[in-house]
Design a protein that fits this description.
The protein folds into two domains: 176 residues, Medium-chain alcohol dehydrogenases, catalytic domain (Quinone Oxidoreductase, Chain A, domain 1), CATH 3.90.180.10; 136 residues, Rossmann fold. Strand 13, helix 8 and strand 14 form a beta-alpha-beta unit. By secondary structure, the chain is of the alpha/beta class. The termini are close together. Helix content is 27%, strand content 22%. The protein binds zinc ion (ZN) (2 copies). One zinc ion binds next to helix 4.
Length: 344
């Protein structure tokens, strides 16, 4: 099969012919229809905590059709089923696995990390981690389930309530899906802070009730002033969806007494905070990572019923042969939000 391979840091991905995957017991093989490019994939090709191994196939936002059902597979999977899948294959026997919290499984294989990912014609998926798509759901739309699941998981652990006042820092794909779910679950104010005008526009389409242009020099104080002007009070929950040093401290300064900060952005550098400011306000800093099976199922169901719309986020679809170029282009910010790779 054809696949885009990560060679080494500083080199673009290379489309090459590699061996087709064969399923282990309990696994399925998916013919990939589309695979989204994620910030995590870009991180994996840079020097850092999450750098991929040379020769790895990246990509974890894949959807497609089952072409092979491995022996001992859970469920009634049939060749031809249209599916999406959580990008890991867990052991299925530990306590977290029993609760559908596969990401917590200590013996899981992760796509694009220690198992080949979806920038390829075929990928193996776990029979427990795979979800059937409703017939009416387009594959391109379903390719957004993974970033949607990151958003719903963050909103769930944040304990967003009907009537909550929300501030979201950053309108990248995760900031946008977080805004969508805050709106869906009845937040009163969903204010997104974003510098880039095209992203600000997208945030309005995806559920933000207002967008703030942060003033970099004036920092936290200005952001809070702008927020209160719009929302009439400070935020109950702040989602940090950028992952750049300095932002967590800014959130701590903005957050009112007893409120919650949810870091969702991936920051791989040391980042100084002044704990005292959090201490005196008894702040709750709740990190959010990945998703459970229920998060995935909810996203699939809500998309299938047409109760949420992610179409504004899909800005480009490129064939696998053009993936290396599109992938490099994403290193510089542009109008693009979610770029999907289509497989031959
Ligand atoms: Zn992703
Ligand atoms: Zn397990």
């Amino acid at each position: 099969m054809k696949a885009a391979i990560f060679k080494e840091v500083g080199q673009p991905l290379a489309v090459e012919n590699v061996e087709d995957p064969t399923p282990e017991p309990g696994e399925l093989v998916m013919k990939v229809g589309f695979c989204g490019i994620c910030g995590t994939d870009l991180h994996a090709t840079r020097e850092g905590l999450t750098t991929a191994c040379c020769g790895q196939i990246l990509g974890h936002e894949y959807v497609g059709e089952i072409v092979e059902v491995g022996r001992e597979a859970d469920g009634n999977w049939q060749v031809g089923d249209r599916v999406c899948a959580m990008p890991f294959i867990a052991c299925g026997n530990c306590l977290p696995c029993a609760a559908g919290r596969f990401f917590e499984c200590e013996s899981k294989k992760v796509s694009g990390v220690d198992d080949p990912g979806g920038f390829a014609e075929y990928v193996t998926t776990g029979s427990r981690e795979t979800l059937l798509l409703p017939d009416n759901l387009e594959l391109t739309t379903a390719a957004l389930v993974e970033p949607l699941a990151v958003g719903i998981h963050a909103v769930r652990v944040a304990n967003v309530k009907a009537g909550s006042r929300i501030l979201i820092i950053g309108a990248g794909p995760i900031g946008l899906t977080t805004a969508l779910w805050c709106n869906f679950f009845g937040a009163r104010e969903v204010v997104v802070s974003e510098l880039a005008e095209t992203r600000a526009q997208l945030a309005r389409q995806m559920g933000a009730t207002a967008v703030i242009q942060p003033n970099i020099e004036k920092g936290a104080e200005d952001l809070l002033e702008q927020y209160i002007d719009i929302a009439g009070g400070p935020p109950d929950v702040i989602f940090e969806c950028v992952g750049a040093p300095g932002l967590l401290q800014q959130c701590i300064e903005i957050a009112p007494y007893g409120s919650r900060i949810v870091p969702v952005g991936v920051c791989e550098q040391p980042d100084a905070i002044m704990p005292f400011f959090g201490l005196v306000k008894e702040l709750n800093i709740q990190f959010a990572m990945a998703y459970t099976k229920d998060d995935f199922e909810t996203c699939v169901a809500m998309l299938g019923e047409g109760r949420i719309d992610v179409s504004p986020m899909i800005t480009d679809v490129v064939p696998l042969d053009e993936l290396p170029e599109a992938f490099e282009a994403l290193r510089t910010p542009s109008h693009q939000c979610k770029v999907l790779t289509s497989m031959p």
